[in-house]
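Deviation from plan, reported transparently: zinc ion complex.
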Amino acid sequence: MNRTGFVYHTDFVKHLTGSGHPERPERLISLMRHLSTVDIYSDLILLAPKPAGVEVIKSVHDGSYVERLQKACKSGLHYLDSDTVVCENSFAVAALAAGAGIEACRAVMDERLDNAFCAVRPPGHHAESSQAMGFCLFNNVAVAARWLQSEFRLKKICIIDWDVHHGNGTQSAFYDDPSVLYVSIHQSPLYPGTGSFDEVGRGEGRGATLNIPVSAGCQDADYLALFEKKVVPIVRDFQPDFLLVSAGFDAHKQDPLANMEISESGFAEMTEVLMRLANECCSGKLVSFLEGGYDLDGLNLSVEAHLKALVGN
Ligand SMILES: [Zn+2]
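Because the crystal trials were delayed, the predicted structure below was used instead.
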C-alpha cells in the first residue's frame, strides 16, 4: 500500500461563483461527503495546505496580473470574462489551491508520501501568465512544477493533463522550455480551441509539448490505447524526475460540459499507467490536481477510483 496524501482545505468552498455556474463549491462539498462514506478515505494521509506566497505564484504569473486579480476580487462577486467568476475570497482561495500542490510535492520529495492528490478549486490549467480563463485563476500545476525546479533543483518535470479540455495555460507556461514535458489528451473541437497536433513547443522546447486531440465519444479502451501508444513512449524517453497530473474528471460519461464516455474505472486504469511510468522513471513520485469534473456523482466516483489506484490496494 502506498502512502497517498490527500490535500484539502475547507476554505476551498469559499470561492463562490454564483448560481448556475458549473464550477461551484458543491463539487467539493459533495466529494468530501462521498469520501467520508468510503473505505479508501481512512487509508489517505490528510494534509492541509498553506497559501502559496506571491513570489512563488510569480514564477508562473505576471506581477501585474497578480495585483490586478487581487484588486478585482476586492470588488466582490463578478465575472472576469464570459466563464470565470471571482468573489471577495477568491484571491486567497486561489493562493491556497496553488499552495496545495506545493504541500503535496514537498511531502513527496521529503519521502513522507509516495504520491498525492490535491482536491482543489479553483482549478488551474487554463490560467495564462497574465490572464484568468476558463474558471481558472492561478495555474496550480504550473506553479508546482516551477517550485519543484527551484526548491529541489529537479531537472525534468512531466505534466500529464487528461482533463477533457486542453490546458492552454500550462502549455504556454512551458512552450519554449525543454525541462517540462507537457502532454494533453483532450476533446477536439472543444473549449478553449487550442491543443492541435502541430502545437509541439517552440525553440528549445520543440518536442516537449505533445497534444493528443480526440473526437467526442471516446471510451476507456480508446484512451488507454492512446496512453500506451503515445503517452508512455514520450514520457519514458523524457525520463522525468517528477510526474504531475492535471486530473480533470470531465471526460466522464456523465459530465455535462463535454461528450466523452470515460468511466471511473477508466480513470483508475489511466492512473495505474501513470504510476507505472512514475515508478520506472522517478521512484513513483506523482502528484495529481483536480481540474474539471462537473457532474457531482461522476466526480465523486472518479476521484474515489483515482485515489484507490494511487493507494494501490
Ligand atoms: Zn475541463
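The longest helix spans residues 90-109. We consider this an acceptable substitute for the interim report.
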